[in-house]
Amino acid sequence: MSEKITILGAGLAGCEAALWLESQGVEVELYEQKPVHFSPAHKKAGFAELICSNSLKAERLDSASGLLKAEMRLMGSSLLQAAETARVAAGGALAVDRDLFSEEVTRMVESRPGIHLHRQEVTQVPGEGLTLVATGPLTEGGLAGSISELTGGDHLSFFDAVAPIVTAESLDREKVFAASRYGRGEADYLNCPFNKEEYEAFHAALVGAERAELHEVDKLTVYEGCMPIEVMAGRGADTMRFGPLRPVGLTDPRTGHRPWANVQLRSENKENTLYNLVGFQTNLKWGEQKRVFSMIPGLENAEFVRYGVMHRNTFLDSPRLLLPTLNLRQHPHIYFAGQITGFEGYMESAACGLLAARAMLAALRGKACPPPPEDTMCGALIRYITAENKNFQPMGANMGILPPLAEPVRDKRQRYMALAERAVASMKGWAESTL
To answer: pLDDT at position 34, please?
Structure first.
């Protein structure tokens, strides 16, 4: 082997990338800090350690997670093979024994002759040679400082406080209306107006809702500069009405009067197919978010593609920093993969590793490697994290980011299957053409 690539991090993205590149004849120098140094959340020395859950989500093709897995198989995923070895019963989902999964991935990596493993902490991104940074959402210390220097200092987030995101098509347009406060500029926001009775019932439910337990690594930062909506509600019935739910400057077209309170929704993408709940950073359990936030007028049947989360999370301002090939605009020899890019989720992280690996192999061999078509889940995710977005936050696989079908399909399950079949066909063509 004469071709060589350096990878920092043996998590899901780093291992997926290393295994695929080695299979293509590339020599990989893989650096992993464990067991020399552990992040606050990691406990074991094995690779691809799963922290929060042992579920890799749904497998059926007409689901976002199932579609993502189908695309990963077409790209030559090794981690899905490891998941089959470690599979445990979980109905229609792919779930694994976490220890067995990590052991299998570690075995696969260590058995490859073209992967040279270095168990040591890296504090600087290499200045030359193709390098993939896949150090995950808890990147810290000297390496985080080195990345900050490369990216301009203020383009690296260390705290993830994300409001829920819903699909536009699931909103009740009889209740939700478009307007900006006082009619200033374009009607860029969708508004969900409360009357007094609706608001009081919502406030009571929010105050009494069950919260998720915070990990130790999150407790030091979770309330700095960002107040959860349930904490705000607990400070008094009117606190939210003078904060993110203030109704001033708005008129409900159904009544001709100012609402008692108002939730604003802000578009997440240029196609206006996704909207986030402005000011709704939250630490409620996901089931509670669905129950309580569905009490907001117009959101009774809302489809949540992402629930709110509050935790320590290092991620790039990818729209400003990364090219669609997942390398830095200003330092094109440095690539990023995994959750540090804004790909949110276990399988999303692994898929990002595969995408970066293909782009790096092309660069190594002087070839072009465009990202997957936008009608694939992988292509849509790349577009999401690299398209202009002033309020960028990480995103996981969901059907809402895919371009609509040429011919609309009313039935949701049939529509999702049509989207998935289109995506699989596109991914198959792309995967074959980029080798």
So the answer is: 92
Q: Does 321 share its domain with 257? A: no
Structure tokens at 72: 């990963």
Token pair listed for 412 = 């949701």
Phi first, then psi: give them for residue 70, nearest 5 degrees: -60, -40
- What's the CA gap between 286 and 210, in Å, rounded? 9
Q: What is the pTM of this model?
A: 0.78
Residue 46 pLDDT greater than 50, yes or no: yes
**Side chain identity at 68, as an amino acid letter?**
L
Element (H, E) at 156: strand 156-157
Phi and psi at residue 322, in whole multiples of 5°? Answer: -105, 145
> Residue 264: beta bridge partners?
191
* Residue 257: count of CB within 10 angstroms of its CB: 12
Q: Which of 282, 310, 338 is the last residue of a domain?
A: 310
Distances in whole angstroms, Cα of residue 407 to Cα of each of 192, 237, 382, 402, 419: 30, 46, 25, 14, 11
Confidence of residue 223 (pLDDT cuts 50, 70, 90): very low
Per DSSP, helices labelled H in 235-330 are 286-293, 318-321
If asked whether residues 31 and 49 sit together in one domain, one would say yes
Same domain, 152 and 18: yes
Cβ atoms within 10 Å, residue 368:
9
Q: In angstroms, how far is CA 23 from the centroid of its own chain?
A: 27
42: pLDDT confidence band, cut at 50, 70 and 90? low
Contact in structure between 151 and 317 (CB atoms under 8 Å):
yes
- CATH code, 61: 3.50.50.60
Residue-range definition of the domain harbouring residue 255: 162-310
Helices (H), 294-335: 318-321
For residue 117, what are its two tokens?
Answer: 């493993």
Q: What residues have CB less than 8 Å from 304, skipping those under 6 apart?
A: 164, 165, 166, 289, 290, 293
Straight-line distance from the first to the last Cα atom of the chain, in angstroms, rounded to the nearest whole number: 18
Is residue 222 very low, low, confident or very high in pLDDT (cuts 50, 70, 90)?
A: very low
pLDDT band with cut points at 50, 70 and 90 for residue 184: confident
Indicate if 298 and 355 belong to the same structural domain.
no
Task: Reduce the DSSP state of residue 107 to 3 states and report it.
Answer: helix
Q: How many domains does the chain have?
A: 2
> What dihedral do alpha carbons 241, 243, 244, 250 form, nearest 10°?
60
- Nearest in space to 370 (alpha carbons), one of 306, 278, 434, 426: 434
